[in-house]
């Protein structure tokens, strides 16, 4: 499941889709996640499109062992040019953390959304620091050609 620490200290276990919930739950969460890139500086990220049937959001899982505070900007892009982003401070720690956009009403299915997150130095203006890492959700299976 996304966000759980898997084998060999991985953030979540790689790309693909996951379904979470319980047998008694009327609402299931769908996650479509991309690969789990890592930078030579010590940042790991994993970004997913999350949907529960009523809402869609982006969630980025990370681990920051750079020794410095970073800034993360998860962004959800959806149909009709709809975009939502949030800004998070990413402390330096070996334990995984997460940051996500607000949940928004779904317009279409989760396959119509893409999530990306960038990680950059924590000081200064957001557009001044070059990114140390970018991660994104995988395209929907119908978009792969």
Folded structure, characterized:
With 145 residues, the protein is an all-beta fold. Helices cover 0% and strands 46% of the residues. It has strands at residues 16-20, 29-33, 43-51, 55-64, 70-77, 83-85, 88-90, 93-100, 104-105, 114-121, 131-136. The strands form 2 sheets. Strands 1, 2, 3, 4, 8 and 9 form a 6-stranded antiparallel sheet that branches. Strands 5, 6, 7, 10 and 11 form a 5-stranded antiparallel sheet that branches. The chain is elongated. Residues 1-10 and 13-26 have low confidence and may be disordered.
Query: How many helical elements?
Result: 0
Indicate the mean pLDDT.
80
The total beta strand count reads 11
Using only CA atoms, what is the Rg? 15 Å
Brief account:
With 145 residues, this protein is mainly beta. Helices cover 0% and strands 46% of the residues.
């Amino acid at each position: 499941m996304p966000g759980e620490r898997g084998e060999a200290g991985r953030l979540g276990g790689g790309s693909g889709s996951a379904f979470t919930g319980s047998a008694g739950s009327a609402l299931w969460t769908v996650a479509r996640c991309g690969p789990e890139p890592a930078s030579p500086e010590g940042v790991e990220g994993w970004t997913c499109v999350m949907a529960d049937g009523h809402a869609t959001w982006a969630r980025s899982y990370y681990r920051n062992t750079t020794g410095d505070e970073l800034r993360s900007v998860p962004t959800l892009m959806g149909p009709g040019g709809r975009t939502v982003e949030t800004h998070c401070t990413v402390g330096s720690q070996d334990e995984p953390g997460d940051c996500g956009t607000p949940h928004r009403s779904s317009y279409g299915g989760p396959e119509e959304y893409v999530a990306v997150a960038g990680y950059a130095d924590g000081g200064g203006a957001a557009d001044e620091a070059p990114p140390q890492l970018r991660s994104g959700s995988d395209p929907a299976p119908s978009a792969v050609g």
